[in-house]
Amino acid sequence: MSAAGKSGPCGAMLEEDPDQTYENVLAEIQSFELPLEATLRSVYDDQPNAHKRFMEKLDACIRNHDKEIEKMCNFHHQGFVDAITELLKVRADAEKLKVQVTDTNRRFQDAGKEVIVQTEDIIRCRIQQRNIITVVEKLQLCLPVLEMYTKLKEQMSAKRYYSALKTMEQLENVYFPRVSQYRFCQLMIENLPKLREDIKEISMSDLKDFLESIRKHSDKIGETAMKQAQQQKTFSVALQKQNNVKFGKNMYINDRIPEESNEIVLKHAIEEEDENEEEVLSVQDLVDFSPVYRCLHIYSVLGDEETFENYYRKQRKKQARLVLQPQSNMHETVDGYRRYFTQIVGFFVVEDHILHVTQGLVTRAYTDELWNMALSKIIAVLRAHSSYCTDPDLVLELKNLIVIFADTLQGYGFPVNRLFDLLFEIRDQYNETLLKKWAGVFRDIFEEDNYSPIPIVNEEEYKIVISKFPFQDPDLEKQSFPKKFPMSQSVPHIYIQVKEFIYASLKFSESLHRSSTEIDDMLRKSTNLLLTRTLCSCLLNLIRKPHIGLTELVQIIINTTHLEQACKYLEDFITNITNISQETVHTTRLYGLSTFKDARHAAEGEIYTKLNQKIDEFVQLADYDWTMSEPDGRASGYLMDLINFLRSIFQVFTHLPGKVAQTACMSACQHLSTSLMQMLLDSELKQISMGAVQQFNLDVIQCELFASSEPVPGFQGDTLQLAFIDLRQLLDLFMVWDWSTYLADYGQPASKYLRVNPNTALTLLEKMKDTSKKNNIFAQFRKNDRDKQKLIETVVKQLRSLVNGMSQHT
């Protein structure tokens, strides 16, 4: 911009009225309100001579002001002079006043020195007082902290760790914030973590001691718990039996008498329970659980509850594995099993107590998992160790322990169904041990038996036998004394022992929480095993013994008949002790019929075998002179002895069932006939004379007479004689020498010699032919009738032809 442009209106004003303009400029300068830069620039920039004229105006303005100042000074000069004059007059008075003031000040200072000293003392006292108040206030603030810390130390010394932790919380949350600026507070704050660690270590040590204590006391705890469960069960059983009597149920117990004194039993049970109430201690009495409570609370307060729970559960699982590990000889005595069970019960009773009195330390899921693990181990251990038990009494005691063990833990809420399932396995083993035991009992009974009918001489002996064995025979009752029971002593003894077996089996079935129907079924099945396996096996072994003769076998058959008839009484007996009607659906029946029937068949077969052996023994005594020319005229001695023996034996057989005696008699005759035939046809026998044939014929006639004498009643006609028909036709053929008839009628159903085999006839004829050559028996025929000799040759040829034809046909 140009200078003219910059001057703007001021330049225009100078051109129009320079004097007025300078006046305005001077007024602006004097006002001190506007910036001087623009004003002065307008003065110097507008016109070349403006500065000069402005300076002139400025000088003129200054002169005017000086004049005005001078006028004002002149106006006020007299007053100034007067004031100076008056001031000079006051000067002397001021000096005097100064002296007085100085003196007064000196005297005042001298007088105020003591006041100053006292004032300073007051100030100092006030400061001290203020400090004391401050100290008191601070001490009042710190003393509760120190008291709480002292209390903390006392609690630590008294081992009240849970209270100590609570005190620490109060210190940290309430007291320390008030005095946090003090050094002692910082020291206390730094010391608290160490105290907490000490408390954790001490409480953990107490927990370890507690765990060791309950490990040692587990058996005592378990024994106490099982004793309480057993007492409660005894009371319940007594009460149930009393109710059964009230409702008219006929219950039998182990003493094998009806429950007629249940009120006394119940009273004794109540009295015993009352007596033991003071003696039996609870788990809290046996174990001090305070360490675990304290430790749990301490770790809860410390916020480390999970660590404590994990440690506790881990240690308890280790202890559980130790408890579940049995001793190697546990199966030898019942005390070994009892210790095993009491330790396990004690362990889980403690866990159940911890579950119910603490929150979160153990849970139901944890205890269930631990119990399932333990239950599997327990079942495996019991299954293994019980398999070694051979004593039924020990197995029964083991069962009772398992029942009490299961009932005890069931009372604490643990599922025990698998234990009762295991008892069914052990029941089978128990039955096996019973069967082995009763096998020995039966063997002893059989060994002691004399196998003769039981003699009785008076009514008392009769009643004794009847009380032991359910025998009913009106004919025997009508007979006068002395008389005999048909069975031997072993029958009532066996019947009693079968009942004893049923009682023993019933003992195991008790307390298994099974219905009467199931118990009845178990008893019947076990009794069937006793009859069909054990007793039957003992009978079969007895029958096969070499020293058992025919008389003993006959008595055994009679005995089995009566035992078979007694099976229905055994069924009634089982029904009575289980209160189950025989008409109940699915009731198992006793298999006594098949058992004793098999034994009888075996005895009958043994009779046939021994009878044949006896016949063979007599036949071996035969001493024929096969070359004799004439018979002795009487039967051989061995044969007569054999026939007399058979007569006496068959007389004993009259006590047997008719078919048995008849079968034995027929078998004996057939075997005798076969033996005699084999004697004639023996390959070692090379020659037979006609005299020997005639002597042999006399023996056969005696056999036929014996058969016709009906040694055993019941045969029709000459049925028994038919056993000797083969011998009879063969001997008749040779005695009559009726070869023409034999050869002519051979093969005809009506043949007189139908039972004579050509081979048999040929063998015997050749033996006689050889004799004729050596002993000249047929010399008379050769001299007198050579045609007959030719006939013999012809018969031999024809017999050989028949034999060859038979072999070709075959």
From TrEMBL:
UniProt key word Zinc-finger: no
- Using the record's annotation, list all stretches that form the Exocyst complex subunit EXOC6/Sec15 C-terminal domain: 419-767
Domain named Exocyst complex component EXOC6/Sec15 N-terminal: residues: 57-226
Keywords (A to Z) from UniProt: Exocytosis, Transport
Lineage, top-rank taxon, reads Eukaryota
Under the heading Pfam families, the entry gives: EXOC6_Sec15_N, Sec15_C
Report the function annotation for this chain.
Component of the exocyst complex involved in the docking of exocytic vesicles with fusion sites on the plasma membrane.
Family classification: Belongs to the SEC15 family.
Q: What is this protein called?
A: Exocyst complex component
**From which source organism is this entry?**
Ceratotherium simum simum
